[in-house]
Amino acid sequence: MSQPHRINGGLTDRTQALHFTFNGKAMQGYAGDTLASALLANGQRLVGRSFKYHRPRGIFSAGSEEPNALVELRRDAHCEPNTRATVAELFDGLEARSQNHRGSLEFDLMAATDLLSPFLSAGFYYKTFMWPKAFWEKFYEPIIRASAGLGRLSGQSDPDFYDKGFLHCDLLVIGAGPAGLAAALAAGRSGARVVLADEDFVLGGRLNAETMQIGGQMGSAWAAAAGGELAAMGNVRLMPRTTVYGAYDHGIFGALERRTDHLADTTGAPRQILWRVYARRSILAAGATERPIAFANNDRPGVMLAGAVRTYANRFGVTPGRRVAVFTNNDDGWRTATDLAGKGVEITAIIDTRKIRPLASIPGVVIMTGAHVTGTAGRKGIKAITLNTGQRIPADCLAVSGGWNPNVHLTCHQRGRPVWDNDISAFVPGGDLPPGMTVAGAANGTLTLAAALKEGHATANAALKSLGFTPSRSQAPVAEDEPRTLEAFWHVRAGRGRAWLDFQNDVTVKDVKLAHQEGFRSVEHLKRYTTLGMATDQGRTANIPALAIMAECTGKTIAETGTTIFRPPYTPVPIGALAGRARGKDFRPYRLTPSHKWASENGATFVETGNWLRAQWFARPGEKGWRDSVDREVRMTRASVGICDVTTLGKIDIQGRDAAEFLNRIYANGFAKLAVGKVRYGLMLREDGIAYDDGTTAHLAENHYVMTTTTANAVLVFRRLEFARQCLWPDLDVHLISATDGWAQFAVAGPNARALLAKLVDAPFDISNEAFPFMACASLSVCGGTPARLFRISFSGELAYEIAVPARFGDAMIRALMAAGKEFDAIPYGTEALGVMRIEKGHAAGNELNGQTTALNLGLGRMVSKKKDCIGNVLSERAELNRPDAVRLVGFKPVDRAESLAAGAHFINRGDPADMDHDQGWMSSVAFSPMLGHSIGLGFISRGHERMGEIVRAVDPIRKREVEVEITSPHFFDPEGERLRV
Amino acid sequence: MIINHPLLGPRDAAEFVYLGDASLIDRPDWQDPLAAEKFHDYLYLRDNPVGNHRELWYHEQGDRSWLVVTRNTLTHEIIKVELATDVARKRGRSR
Amino acid sequence: MRYSAMRVLLEGLTGNRGWKPVWRDPEPKPQYDVVIVGGGGHGLATAYYLAKQFGQQNIAVLEKGWIGSGNVGRNTTIIRSNYLLPGNEPFYEFSLKLWEGLEQDFNYNAMVSQRSILNLIHSDPQRDAFARRANAMLLAGADAELVDAAQLRRELPFLDFDNARFPIRGGLFQRRGGTVRHDAVAWGYARGADSLGVDIIQNCEVTGFNIDNGICRGVETTRGNIRAGKTAVCVAGSSSRVMALAGMRLPIESHVLQAFVTEGLKPLLPGVITFGAGHFYVSQSDKGGLVFGGDIDGYNSYAQRGNLPVVEDVCEGGMAIMPMIGRARLLRSWGGIMDMSMDGSPFIDKTHIDGLYFNGGWCYGGFKATPASGYCYAHLLAKDTPHPTATEYRLDRFARGHLIDEKGQGAQPNLH
Predict the structure, then answer these.
(1) Distance from C-alpha of A827 to C-alpha of A173, rounded to nearest angstrom
(2) Distance to chain A for C211, nearest Cα, Å
(3) How far is Cα A781 from Cα A791, in angstroms, rounded to an integer?
(4) What per-residue confidence (pLDDT) applies to A2?
């Protein structure tokens, strides 16, 4: 349990030892470690395998840019693949495993692919695997897929839960390094509402990784103090472990806060929270990412970013190697040598590509300027480096620095395009930043400490002024600027072997050159052809060097070559977090009908109807299947009386002096002269003349109507009515209220419906056929004073009513109806019986009103009044919608009555081949009619209304069936409609 | 996106439902001799501009106002928000 | 240069020095018989088939940026022919058949993978509609298979069968559907067209049409004027702004559709799966990423990016049907600009201006149509009559009332 690479110093808590395993091997680290720092402390250099060649790989960075050290954390359903060890916080009991190898990590059988690399260059797969044709799916692709991919999902439902939240602030500061902290301090002191977010679990950014001082204090200590001051401010919200991953329109940011990923026990709390942050202004202080230099075999474990090596030493008290060499093109790399040497780590060489005077002298260190590293030795961990002089220098860690790239990503999430800055040889934020955003510190290309602090402070004050705040009098923290000159250097030409650019996807310098050779020269072609930058790290360390090499090939500058653009997310976001709680049964809310409780007490089976849950049927003991129940419900309703909750139908209260005129324009048929106390069936068209919705509208009182819509269109019709009212005819005196949820409504249908209702309707209201005939309506009271509305309308074809009471009385109403109906053997019926009865009556429903059919198709052509303006009137007259051979809604009976029909069958004339050219129409709805004793169907067939009695084939090849059917009237039961008028 | 509702102040666009070009206010006269052609152009043809676009949004999760929002289709910047009723009246619509 | 395993082997042994540019980089000539405006999948396919099937010699493809930079480079790579209406189904089935022989035809491995596509069924009315559609597919000579929940449970045990808000009651399979490596389609067509003598001219933006007495005689570009016997516009996403240069207004709105991919994962999903009660469809790429998408953002936009509510909506749909993907991380997102047409169906037609042709309005379904769109457009350009499978894609269909509205949503583009 020793930690051979642990050295003194750092910010970890040495009093808190944490135990963890890597590939089953027990190891130990300290609180404050990442998995990566703990692995390094334990001397674990080999941690993963690359995507394509399965090359051995070690930890490369100390942050979210990590391309190599991807591991699986935790086990079973909690297993989390592809996690960067460099950002995974260590906790006691953590289980980590390497991924993407066959056999053990040390002896990966797939490593053989590396030997084939000459044949596996960029895009090789576009040029082969084409013969024989059928082999792609059967042979080549399964092999490719099995070897591709990285980690494994468990295949089990994600056991954690995720929350979402909204935050509002004056200023969002993204990144809590020196610039971000300086900005947050300035803003917090001025009283503005500030959110400060950082992906790390400790505030301070590079301050924790360096040995610089601020105001005479160690940078890390200053950062801790600044964090303390901010935490004490009520107007500041500190959000460590929070990645602001996307900048969206109008100052809205997406941020992911990790709440339990660093805990052993994750139960009882959301794993992560997805925040939508509404910020009036934002400061991007996301720092910069170091980039490597490409040279032969630069991908081996032990080759690391120089800044990361400093991070491990200074922040974590871990040295990645016992003998460390440095390869740099800038001043920054030298600090790795001096910092580590200061901690007693042996530095074997400093190689600087520049011909400069050495910036430091450390006893015993080979210092070479104007020199290059041309290769490494040591397959699973470097042992030595080779220089262009041929000199071989022992090293188990090579710290490489090619300069720093500002993290401009969020500046590009809208229209911003970064611009090349020759001074630092990197892209910096260009114009067209997200509105309200400014950039400070290293993210802005301000790479030195004092300048970054000043810029953070000044940027915050400018943002505050623009919001009308008075900046506090505090000054920017004081520090010294470190030397930071650099000479661009991208790759070492000398040396044998491949030089890696994109470590994870195995894109090498040769691949970029091949892409150029084959004409893939725009940056986007380069990316897509070679897969450069498409790995989990999004090419954070790879893209710029690769662009530089493409620029070399084309003879253009990097500025001319341009860069690919950045899109959200900055770092990957779990799908579970983006979904939040909307999963499983909570994916969408359930809407329950007022009789739901009663129905569930009485054996109802429920069905999802849009967001509603409706009773589908009510099984009784002894019934063997749903058909038994449904047939009984139909028969008993038609024999005596049945009750159905129809609350889900849309209800719109329409009032005003012009309500009648308004309705007359909304409906295709006339509504101007509907008398008070009467209901009328209405057909609504879309403006393109296609049938849209139907329902009844009741004229309850002078200038007061109640419209019903289909369940599916309740919200949509209301929206359209508001559009017509506000946008088309703003001066009509008409007002709309959505009343769908306000009223519980029940259909009471069957010969005994009147007798049943008579027991409930309060005197002196008279519901006799004479006083309250078919299509009558009234406001009245029931059950001794409960306000109610009664409509004598019928969907079932029976003597029927719909009775509505305020929704809060819905449960009482269904109970009262059933109690009153007891003497008549009243039964409740569900949506299935409702559907059977409407098919028996030939009424169109959703399957017929599907947005593709006209009034003509539906057999309702004569309802469309040509004498008035109404929505859809003009365009319904277009020629192709009125073809003589248009399909018409008719009924169908199987010639052999024992046959059953199937919705979705197509009609083919007898003797014609069953193909698309001879398609005559389709069956839209079918049911077994208990009243007729056989299967019946509604469907659309060309010229159907002229073809009564004709026999056609209902072909259903998908279910390998074909039935001969007779075209009939759609009114199967009681065609004269005598039953509903009695 | 955030829509600055003229009556209610800034509201998240997720509260709204989008319809399309504000020219949908200009419904032709059904008795126009060229009604068929005019209704076709009205319903089907769009300027679909790159840049400022006047468009209809409905505050369904709010006060049910229809709004005419002038928004840049390239930058998504919202330049102006008006009540559709006011716009409709200005364009001569009445009863 | 012909591609083959042998060639890969030989080149590998000789340092890969012999590979040639996949397409040339020619200067534009002053005159072509056919100028195709738009170097996306459809434009390149049009050029390829014009040269290969219809014997045209003198063709240019003009692309304002880099070829394949439009929607062929930013989609979810799905191919299928599971349409309902007679105006659509034969066309998409023709396209699927072309996909099936495409790689051998243009000698480029676009990784056409017929891994199947599944539309989940969650209600009885949905099953009725899918049965009707499946029968239409079979009557048109395509393949279809209607399965019940029990079979799905056997095939795709990871779907949420037991705790779903909208229970899975079955599905419609098209086993011949699947995915294709999208960029490779552009490159394969470019390579094929180039080898047949087509000039592919990148960084050449059309700034105007040279129209004279109702006849289009060519285009003005950022690289000079180019005369053309026929000018064929094929710029879905930018259709309205390009055709506005010819004074035309189109039955099209531009909308953004976002798409997403996760980090690479070991094989998980066999084919394409589409949620029937929300907005979510997903497949897994050969590299291992889950490629998924959902609904369009819903407002007119020319910005190739979307907003968070749709991202969340799509991920909710994903978690609703397969809660095992909760710990998979969304890695990249992108946005494509869709030509959303007024009935959800496309146009391949002449315009009222002689010599000017239009192809567009593909909504979010243009990728799968690429081969047939190219073929049928080439047919129209070569013969001046529509290909038999594309007779309905006319610009005047709204005036006639001949709608091809698969979803039944009417003239509101963001609902298609």
Answers:
(1) 64
(2) 32
(3) 13
(4) 83
Name residue, tokens 């007495």: C213
Q: Which residue of B has its CA nearest to A658?
A: B95
Q: Which whole-number Å values give the CA distances from A388 to A325, A369, A372, in the listed order?
A: 15, 11, 6
* Proportion of chain C above pLDDT 90, given as a percent: 99
Q: Which helix (DSSP H) or strand (DSSP E) does residue A928 occupy?
A: strand A919-929
CA B27 to chain centre: 12
The CB density around residue B78, as the number of other CB atoms within 10 Å, is 18
Q: For strand A346-352 and strand C117-121, is the pairing parallel, antiparallel, or unpaired?
A: unpaired
ipTM of the prediction: 0.99
Q: In this predicted structure, what is the pLDDT of residue A440?
A: 98
Alpha-helix residue ranges (DSSP H) falling in C196-235 = none
Residue A565: which pLDDT band, with cuts at 50, 70 and 90? confident
Name which of B30, B40, B94 is nearest A869 (Cβ-Cβ).
Answer: B30
Nearest by CB to residue B30, choosing from A252, A278, A873, is A873
What is C396-409 written as a DSSP string? THHHHT----TT--
Please indicate if any CB of chain B lies within 8 Å of the CB of C399. yes
Q: What is the pLDDT of residue A495?
A: 85
Mean pLDDT within A822-830:
98
Which residue bears the tokens 């509002």? A168
Predicted confidence (pLDDT) at residue A763 exceeds the cutoff of 80:
yes
Q: What is the pLDDT of residue A349?
A: 97
State pLDDT tens for residues B11-32: 999 999 999 999 999 999 999 9
A336, burial (CB in 10 Å: exposed 0-12, middle 13-18, buried 19+): buried
What average pLDDT does range A371-396 have in this prediction? 97
Taking the C-alpha atoms of residue C101 and residue A132, their distance in angstroms, rounded to an integer, is 11
Counting one residue from chain B and one from chain C, the pairs whose CB atoms sit within 8 A come to: 66
| Residue B15 lies inside a defined structural domain of this protein | yes
Nearest by CB: B85 against A250, A278, A730 = A730
- % of residues, chain A, pLDDT over 70: 100
Phi, psi of A508 (to 5 degrees): -110, 170
* Beta-carbon separation of B88 and A730 below 8 A: yes
For residue A148, the model assigns a pLDDT of: 87
C319 and A583 in contact by Cβ < 8 A?
yes
Average pLDDT estimate for A29-51: 97
What mean pLDDT value characterizes chain A?
96
For helices C182-195 and A523-530, give the axis angle rounded to 10 degrees: 110
B39 found inside a domain:
yes
Q: How many interface pairs between A and C have CB atoms less than 8 angstroms apart?
A: 364
Nearest to C23 by CA among C128, C125, C116, C108: C108
Helices (H), C200-295: 239-244
CB contact under 8 A, C251 and B45: yes
B13 domain-assigned: yes
Number of domains comprising chain B: 1
Q: Which domain holds residue B20?
A: 2-90
Beta bridge partners of A255: A244, A275
Subunit contact B2:A278, Cβ cutoff 8 A: yes
**Mean pLDDT value of segment A514-532:** 96
C-alpha separations of B66 from A664, A707, A720, A795, B17 in Å: 22, 21, 10, 34, 9
Does residue B95 fall inside a structural domain?
Answer: no
Q: What is the pLDDT of residues A776-823, one digit of tens each?
A: 999 999 999 999 999 999 999 999 999 999 999 999 999 999 999 999
Number of H helices, E strands in chain A: 20, 51
Q: What's the CATH number where B55 sits?
A: 3.30.2270.10
- Chain A residues touching residue C86 (CB < 8 angstroms): 916, 919
Q: Answer with the residue of higher pLDDT: C293 or A130.
A: C293
B partners (3+ CB pairs within 8 A) are A, C
Shortest CA gap B6–chain C (Å): 20
DSSP class of A124 = G
pLDDT exceeds cutoff 80 at A1: no
